[in-house]
What does this fold into?
Amino acid sequence: MSTPHNSANLGDFAKTVLMPGDPLRAKFIAETFLKNAKLVNNVRGIQGYTGEYNGKPVSVMASGMGQPSIGIYSYELFKFYGVENIIRVGSCGGLTENLHVKDVILAMGACTNGNYFSQYGLNGNFSAIASYELLKTAEEAAKSKNITVAVGNVLSSDIFYDEASDTLKWAELGVLGVEMEAAALYVNAARLNKRALAILTVSDSFVHANEITTPLEREKSFTDMIMLALETAIKF
It folds into this structure.
């Protein structure tokens, strides 16, 4: 079988998929952490691989940038390929004083300034939250690996170059970081009765202006986040 955005066959994906935004990060994860990794999808350059981690099948596939993009890829994996768990592994901008570059966030919830949820015709605002099972497992993995994590809310923004410049207002409500995908992933999981979690690495800071990472660092050096995702993946 195939979908408009995925040429894989049914059974090519494991039950758990790690989902970075960047196709090159997907390739890096597959080649660095998975054994016997096989490319199963490359439509539009959105690379998807399946291999083994500690003897368990695990897949990794890119989502592209933004809620519409991850909305498509996560929906097709959940709906048509039998995927049960998607763990986003991505970067975010830190919004608080105590978060610095390369710190890791487990996104318990995801606010959004986008309209992805409008498709459901709700007379109110849906609270997009992570799977408790995945979140708890990732937090336990962090403790066992001595990786410090912050657990809390993030903002999934549809705007990267924000002319309103009001991103820091979200920090006043305890939001830890801003990224562009988690909310759509969480609502897709909720709608299709699946599990999702976003594990994010701070790549730059709205508070500490001198802290920033290079594209290469974002592609290849966020290994704490990847390790937590893999350790979580093999529990399901």
